[in-house]
Amino acid sequence: MTQFHSLEEALKHFFGYDSFRLGQGQIIEEALQNRDLLIIMPTGGGKSLCFQLPALLKPGLTVVVSPLIALMQDQVDALQDNGIGATFLNSTLNWEDVRSRETAILNGKIKLLYVAPERLLGERFGPFLDQVRSQVGISAFAIDEAHCVSEWGHDFRPEYRQIKQLRQRYPDIPILALTATATKRVQQDIIQQLMLRQPGIHLASFNRPNLYYEVQPKQKQTYNQLFKQIKSHKGSGIIYCLSRRTVDEISFRLQKDGISALPYHAGMTDEDRLVNQTRFIRDDVQVMVATIAFGMGINKPDVRFVIHYDLPRNLESYYQESGRAGRDGEPANCTLFFSAGDIPRIDYFIDQKPDPKEQLVARQQLRQVIDYAEGTDCRRKIQLRYFGEHFKGNCDNCDNCRNPKPVEDWTIEAQKFLSCVARCQERFGMNHIIDVLRGSRKQQIEKYGHHLLSTYGIGKDKTAEAWKMLARSLLHQGLVDETSDGYRILKLNKLSWEVLRKQRSVEIAVIQTPATKALADINPRAAEIEILFEKLRKLRKQLADAQSVPPYVVFSDFSLKLMAQQQPQTLEEFAEISGVGTHKLTQYGERFVSEIRAFCQEQLPPVPLPSNTQMVTLQLHQQGLSLEEIAQKRGFSPRTIVTHLSEVIEMKQAVDFHRLVSADVEKVIIQAINKVGDESLKSIREHLGEDYSYEDIQLVRAWWRREKEN
Fold first, then answer.
1. Which pLDDT score is estimated for 437?
2. Average pLDDT of span 518-539
3. What pLDDT is attached to residue 362?
4. pTM strictly above 0.90
5. Environment class of residue 425 by beta-carbon count within 10 Å: exposed (0-12), middle (13-18) or buried (19+)?
6. Cys-Cys link to 293, which of 105, 266, 371, 530 (CB 3.0-4.6 A)?
7. Cβ–Cβ contacts within 10 Å for residue 666, how many?
8. Domain 211-399 belongs to what topology?
9. What is the residue extent of each domain of the chain?
């Protein structure tokens, strides 16, 4: 840290980002204090930075344990493109390559070393690690995909169990365990198996606000439905299918119809899978059609859509597979095609499980997926509840929230349902309760004497589907619980009793309505920005191909969009783009600035009207929301919201400027602008000092420019 005044300064230097994502700063501070850490952060949340930045700021080598060769390669490529000393040792290297890399490590030229657990625990590698510790030091061990250590995890790997040897061999070196998903049971298992000592536990929200979730009923011509969906999206996408045969058929038909697509499944050779995966990662093809074999090793942040052609087997799988979209934080779509015809196929897979208990749990997980697909509540609320996280709903980024169904008060029906659960002594599931309510004459009802209950037959006025709709909504709203042992028994909770005691009302969405019309795009600049974005994407692809790395290693889609919107004309302006660090500025700055200059010279002056996203931010501001409230509602950083408002201020839109910046602050910043000019925010900030934020400076500069034109 001696050469940097703050962690943010180091972040900008190495990685080009101006600020940390939520939680990253605290984790990095604890890592620098040599604490053991357990970090659970969803895909795309920025886990890697939590061990990469400390590795660069501490003396010695950080050893990263990673389960897949593809993951190592991608992370090392990205680090090296930022000018960072990183390498990997795995089975793809010959003896000379291994020796050369080991020499570089012992000479202190490498800060991060990626290895598989098998190599880490190999006989030859132990003495080499001891030598590294003696000559250059080991700053930390980072265990990526740490859920693999737990037999309760979704991807248990026995070799991960042996990693505890690190603690026994190097008791004074901190261990950082990182994973995207882990239940409480798995968290405890990770701590125990890795022998973590009073670890700092950091559990981030599983919410991915940039992902749009929707469920579409499968149409008779499902392929045509899929083709239309793909054509509506730009950028890379993944299509998940249940069977290898479906993967091969769809990839073949897409190729015939002009969509660049490749298959990926366990029936292919390792070499063919690797070739197809590499072509997808490097943007040589747009679409990967795959079974769930296409999983953990995919480190492509700019996947813009994921479509599940068939029903997934459980909600955790769906969360992870759909979560491969939008890892760069940019908007992405997750679509599930749902048909009851998929259910018998998954039932067949479940029947192949040898353990009856496993079959029972798998069938409960399948019913949870069906409840998700047929649910009328916020999709996020249903997903996050599965992981034990409370979400209030109304996410405004799923089909149920954007196209809300009419809400009705079903408090009386809910009281009938919950009362029936109570009178059946909380020992039965949804279907049995509905049978009692509807007065069924099934043998099971009479066997338990439930035809004698006061709730028997009081729900004949509703169909079984209507009661199921209510039951699902009660579960999704947390107004009733169910066991997770495979039997799915309904249990009353505190909120259930509030409903029964008339202390809480129950509203549910009951029928479908036509989709609400999306906000019209009123921005004439949108086409210009899109054209420049495509030009920059082509330049990025050329530079990436020349270096044999994936395009996102050069710059993310997010950075390219900022370049297209802000159109920096100088290297100084280009350096202010998020994602442009010191090394990338030197390496790519001239090429990208030249491309942007050439494009701007060809264009007519832009018409100053707000874009779609600027209009949404402006409307929320006009409703009286604060910057933080707008940022939270939209899933953006406050800095992005400030940029939106600054832009619409210059477009002379109705912004309540003095609600954003006090008159005293405005006066001082304007004095600084008059002295140093308005071209560079950085120059203004350096003149003013750290007491004045970039956000206030950006807003005042926009207001100053607007007033200057009047």
1. 95
2. 70
3. 80
4. no
5. exposed
6. 266
7. 18
8. Rossmann fold (3.40.50)
9. 7-203, 211-399, 407-509, 525-602, 612-709
Q: How far apart are CA 181 and CA 184, in angstroms?
A: 10
What are φ and ψ of residue 40, in 5° steps?
A: -115, 110
Q: 7-15 and 49-57 helices cross at what angle (nearest 10)? A: 100
Helix spans in 153-221 (H): 165-169, 184-193
CATH superfamily of 7-203: P-loop containing nucleotide triphosphate hydrolases (3.40.50.300)
Closest CA to 437 of 420, 425, 422: 420
Task: Give the closest residue to 495 by CA, choosing from 395, 421, 407, 400.
Answer: 421
Number of Cβ atoms within 10 Å of the Cβ of 267:
14
DSSP code for 60: S
- CB-based burial label for 127 (10 Å; 0-12, 13-18, 19+): exposed
Give the fold, CATH level 3, of 612-709. Answer: Arc Repressor Mutant, subunit A (1.10.10)
Q: How far is CA 470 from the centre of its chain?
A: 30
- Answer yes or no: CATH 3.30.420.40 is held by domain 525-602: no
| CA atoms 698, 703, 705, 708: torsion sign | negative
Structure tokens at 269: 């050779």
CA distances in angstroms from 211 to 243, 250, 388, 501, 701, listed in the order given: 26, 25, 20, 38, 33
Q: Which two tokens stand for residue 21?
A: 């994502």
Return the CATH number of 407-509, one of 3.40.190.10, 1.10.10.10, 3.90.180.10, 1.25.40.10. Answer: 1.10.10.10
Distance of CA 346 to the CA centre of its chain: 26
CA pair distance 382, 398, nearest whole angstrom: 11
Across the range 317-332, mean pLDDT stands at 89
Cβ count within 10 A of residue 464: 14
The pLDDT of residue 486 is above 80: no
Lowest mean pLDDT among 76-80, 129-133, 154-158, 493-497: 154-158
pLDDT, tens digit, 9 for 90 and up, residues 676-685: 988 888 889 9
Same fold, 7-203 and 211-399: yes
Question: Which DSSP symbol is given to 524?
Answer: T
pLDDT in tens, 347-361: 777 888 888 877 887
Question: Terminus-to-terminus CA distance in the chain, angstroms?
Answer: 47
**Beta carbons within 8 Å of 367's beta carbon, 6+ residues apart:** 488
